[in-house]
What does this fold into?
Amino acid sequence: MLLIYCPYCEEERSELEFRQGGDAHIARPTNMTEMSDEDFEAFFFLRDNVKGLTFERWRHLNGCGRFFNAARDTVSDKFLTTYKAGLPRPDVSTLRPAASAPVETYEATESDAK
Amino acid sequence: MWPKQAWKHVYEPQIRAAAGLGVSPTEDDTDHYSSRYAHCDVLVIGAGLAGLSAALAAAKTGARVIICDEQPEVGGALHYDKSVTIDGLDGFTWAQATAANLKQMKNVKVLPRTTAFGYYAQNFVGLNERVTEHLAKPDKKLPRERLWQVRAKRVIIATGAIERHMVFANNDRPGIMLASAARTFLNHFGVAVGKKIGVYTANDSAYEAAFDLKRAGVTIAAIVDSREKPGEGVLAEARSLGIEVLTGHGVVTTSGNLRVSSMSVARNGGGAARKIAIDALLMSAGWTPSVHMFSQSRGKVAYDNETQRFLPGTYAQDCLSVGACNGTNDLQATIEESLAAGELMAQASGYSASQKLELQGSNAFSWSGGMAGAAEGAGPDTTVKAFIDFQNDVCAKDIRLAVREGMHSIEHIKRFTTNGMATDQGKLSNIHGLAIAAETLGREIPKVGLTTFRAPYTPVTFGTLINHARGELFDPTRKTPTHALEEAQGAVFEDVGQWKRAWYYARAGEDMHQAVNRECKTVRDVAGMFDASTLGKIEVVGPDAAQFLNLIYTNSWDTLKPGRCRYGIMLREDGFVYDDGVVGRLAEDRFHVTTTTGGAARVMNHMEDYLQTEFPHLNVWLTSATEQWAVIAVQGPKAREIIAPLVEGIDLSNEAFPHMSVREGKICGVPTRLFRMSFTGELGFEVNVPADFGPAVWEAIRAQAEPLGACAYGTETMHVLRAEKGYIIVGQDTDGTVTPDDASLGWAVGKKKPDFVGIRGLRRPDLVADGRKQLVGLLTKDPKVVLEEGAQIVADPNQTLPMTMIGHVTSAYWSENCGRSIALALVAGGKARIGETLYVPMPDKTIAVEVSDMVFFDKEGGRLHV
It folds into this structure.
């Protein structure tokens, strides 16, 4: 169970109090009715499913109730930082942990065995 | 094997029984379990020499320490290693004294009988404490086991090492055991495991077992050592004790009926075997460091070529391994490493040591040696049973066969042979299996790979994991304020999500069908009262409240005047119906929003999401009020007559208080939000009162209603009455792929609105295409036949299988008021098919139906406006 830092409560709380809310920094277009089908598809349906660094929305549902954003590594499942909704993407080059250990996975041992 | 049918009923059950597979119990678990969270600065896993030393050093700094051990008493290897002294005390005595010392400290928790079974993210460790199982007469109030969920700032892993057995022919006879097991029997329990004992080893530690037994008066037949050169110290001691040592030899087989009676010993590389009579055989191939916890923490193990061991390599979390699990063999080195780790981890948590702790330890011998894989002289590899995995019956020959069959990855070899897949998860067998595979493949051990260590370390009972979350505590039960009164009136309840809702009110002699028919009839002929408290309620307040609802609902709210209500539809951004409900405007800046019972929480979340992240410029405040209001619906021709004597300050006349209005006033002397609305198609009111007043108001309304011939009705009647009127239930008549237009609710979508959630989704090509499934009514040709909800619909019942299904039944009831069955269905191009005959194929018959509109009763809707 992860500990997640809520930027509004300004403390780490248990993962049980939070809900993940999908990709961050996807603003709802203001010109909805003028969008082409392709643009709407890109806005609403298409997501990257990133391996590695991802920016996503979280909500402190069973706490302050606020939505905020997080930079998380989907491989190590580590939060690099969390920040308030509305703020721009943080500069992650300064956030990436210096020694990020490779993760032991089934695939990793598979490739070792070749 | 012939006959084929016998497999299911004879062979397979027999084989399963022979394999010793258990039978899962059918009775309830009568034990109870408890659970707690704990936080500490330093968690020490394992309370042997290393763990106790580390805990002591950490505790002396004042840091909050938890130390756990799976054994009943602390001590680990000190249980059997009698040669150890620490600070002048015998090792085991020192361990008990140290634990007693730790227990007295307020900042320390000592947990024996407690297994750390899982190491999760951010130093979150699961412990399983066995609280009462060892007690003859446990206190009934105590749990059988307790789950600890510990969040530690730092973790010290002191889990020791596990002795490996020797791999040789017929090594599974009773009386053949690990050397450390025999030593524990002797030194801790005072039991000699035999009278004439053989030892087969590849490392020095087994010698000490032989010495202890010899000194206790047991005959040691011989020590067979596969190495040419054992440690000098143990060799000299064996000589002085008069024990025969056969170096460079192996045990090639054993014999014995009910237990081992002899071992056959031969020089490595062949030669004649010598048979030696024994009644027990101790074995030791060396020690496997327990890197389970380290590996579970996502640390990466590294192979140490010199000692042929996997040891902690790269750390992924804030933890440290000490002692045998870290590959540290020497006693004093273990002590010093552990003391330093305890101090370091406490410092990292913000504590500092006032003085350096020192402990002096000594033991008889330092150990060397060890081997992995099959011993020499294990015999021909196709027939001999040299067991690697005793639980899953995997022999050395099976690993070799797996390689011959083309399995080259250890993950494949493991699954082909099931090596390491029993409840011990390969604690004994993995290294042997890996070494044999590596040898057969002609590759080095680390190149073959190591399977991943996963939680739990040892099996954990379901009771501990499930804990309190069973029976009534599995999920919260929500009851409305008037629940007890309804129960007293004979209500039968149904589960709707977490809610208990009155389903129907059975009177003496009535079955459900009769009760529902009576209730349906009574509501339309006289009136009925209904508990609608479970309806979701959200108070939307603020200067921009109307603007916010314009964006959230398809409807327009600007034109709704205070005191009026409107039926609203909410979409997802993809254009599909998400929820519906009546919204009342109480003031310019205040709306009383209702949602479906099941949708209350997610609608609130949906609104919060948009308000916080997409429309943060709007000045609006949302408050969930579902449980603040008790709601009593009074529906039917006599509804006004029933509530009129109780209401103060509200003109109830049709002119002053028309259909779809809301007023604030008093009922029975308490404040009310009184809605004139209807989910039955009758003249109706929904009385909202603060939840605490619900029971009193329910009883007052009932006292007015019953003399007039009205009755209470439940959810089943509510469902039938709304279906008679073609009112949909979101989630029953819609399934997440239905647009407002599909449900004949296109009128509720504001055509001139510039934006609302779902506006663009509604214009997607597929959502405006012809032939979409649309909600329609179905009338069975035989009015007595009631369709089954979920039944599929076809156009031609005589087509070849598989038939083309064009829709399904979403709601179907017997309507006492219509005197026939009615149904709603989603049918492809349904609106254009009105009047057509379609078919519902069932297992035993095909039912012919006619497509109709959705309103079956009072098509003009005049009854609403009286």
Observations:
- Chain B touches chain A at residues 120-122, 124, 149, 151, 295, 298-300, 314-316, 408-411, 446-452, 573-574, 605, 608-609, 612-614, 616, 754-755, 759-761, 763-765 (CB under 8 Å).
- Chain B has a mean pLDDT of 95.
